[in-house]
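User: Sequence recovery, please. Input:
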């Protein structure tokens, strides 16, 4: 059974940091591209960052220089370090695994507010 379980969301002040984690199971993690997406209410889900099995990384322009994606294949976990958070980063964040098949996590909420 495939599972992607996100954690690490919460409330943070503008300028603060959070680290999201996504623990994967039920598939060969090291062979999959992993990604983080986010979705605001009423809007389409959008790419935040991806990291391929070969560790090629892509970021959305809106998060470049602030967010860092990484993966630990020994722990079957992908991370998203988010620094210099802004109120507009307040949305739900979803973990994604892709390699022919596509899997999604249930999402974790991030709120950036003073």
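Assistant: Recovered sequence (114 residues):
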């Amino acid at each position: 059974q495939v599972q992607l379980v996100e954690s690490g969301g919460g409330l943070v002040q503008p300028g603060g940091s959070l680290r999201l984690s996504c623990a994967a199971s039920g598939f060969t993690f090291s062979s999959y591209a992993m990604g983080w997406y986010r979705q605001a209410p009423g809007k389409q889900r959008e790419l935040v960052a991806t990291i391929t099995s070969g560790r090629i990384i892509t970021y959305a322009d809106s998060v470049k220089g602030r967010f860092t994606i990484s993966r630990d294949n020994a722990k079957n976990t992908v991370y998203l370090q988010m620094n210099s958070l802004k109120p507009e980063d307040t949305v739900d964040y979803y973990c994604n695994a892709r390699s022919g098949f596509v899997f999604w996590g249930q999402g974790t909420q991030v709120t950036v507010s003073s």
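The longest strand covers residues 91-99.
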